[in-house]
Design a protein that fits this description.
Order of helices and strands: HHHHHHEEHHHH
Strand content: under 5%
Number of domains: 1
Radius of gyration: 18 Å
Helix content: 55-70%
Largest sheet: 2 strands, antiparallel
Shape: globular
Length: about 240
């Protein structure tokens, strides 16, 4: 457990230095565009040569039913993060709903393999620490591309260390196992969006700008608790999800 906490402290410090220092005097939504584009190119290269090939093989080998079960398990494992942020945002109704999802899917859904809660039409909420900060008036700050993790803002980058600390599984398995779980989770998500990402890359005039615009619109939409899809994205190829 001490090893896990120490690792989270190091991650938090690294992200704080990366996100805060270069942007103290910055103005506008993307004052670090040159830096962000370099990180974006690095992430795209990693995706092209590592994530996409592995995700393609993952999608080819595993039947859709198995892939759905894996995604359901990971979704259930992250529900305590949503529940914690429900409580931090003082949303009692959502807290009860998400606690109910955890109980139903963990028991009747056999550890989350089956999304029984959705089958019986239980509401599903999506909250993270970035949204919690936004709810209390913390502005998003400049746009920020994070190595390996992707699009964020100076405010939203704090969801990575805080929400990671809120995952109960991290305290019951060793570090190598935790990293393996997250790696498989990333491959699962990447496989799910194979076609959508490919179409977006081919269709977008500037894929970096497309990603930035989509991310900022969706995050603002989520922080404001608006219902439905952001109007600006109705005709876009797909909606990014914070999974």
């Amino acid at each position: 457990m001490n090893l896990q906490i120490s690792r989270l402290h190091r991650i938090a410090l690294l992200l704080a230095l990366l996100a805060f220092l270069p942007s103290c005097a910055a103005k506008g939504p993307d004052p670090m565009e040159r830096f962000n584009r370099s990180i974006f190119s690095f992430n795209e290269g990693l995706d092209k040569y590592v994530l996409e090939p592995v995700a393609t093989g993952y999608d080819w080998v595993l039947p859709e039913l198995v892939q759905t079960g894996i995604r359901n398990v990971y979704a259930n494992l992250t529900m305590p993060v949503t529940l914690l942020n429900d409580l931090l945002q003082l949303k009692p109704r959502q807290s009860v709903e998400d606690l109910g999802r955890i109980v139903v899917n963990t028991t009747a859904g056999i550890g989350g393999v089956f999304d029984v809660a959705s089958m019986i039409e239980m509401p599903k909420n999506n909250e993270d620490f970035g949204q919690t900060l936004g709810r209390y008036g913390v502005p998003p700050g400049p746009y920020l591309m994070v190595p390996l993790l992707g699009p964020s803002t100076v405010r939203d980058v704090w969801r990575y260390p805080v929400d990671s600390a809120a995952r109960p599984l991290n305290y019951f398995i060793p570090l190598w196992a935790s990293l393996t779980v997250r790696m498989v989770e990333n491959f699962s998500i990447r496989a799910y969006y194979l076609e959508e990402l490919s179409e977006a890359r081919e269709s977008a005039f500037d894929y970096y700008v497309f990603m930035r615009s989509a991310y900022l619109q969706i995050r603002e939409h989520n922080v404001q608790d608006r219902v439905g899809q952001p109007p600006e994205l109705q005709d876009d190829l797909y909606e990014f999800e914070d999974e």
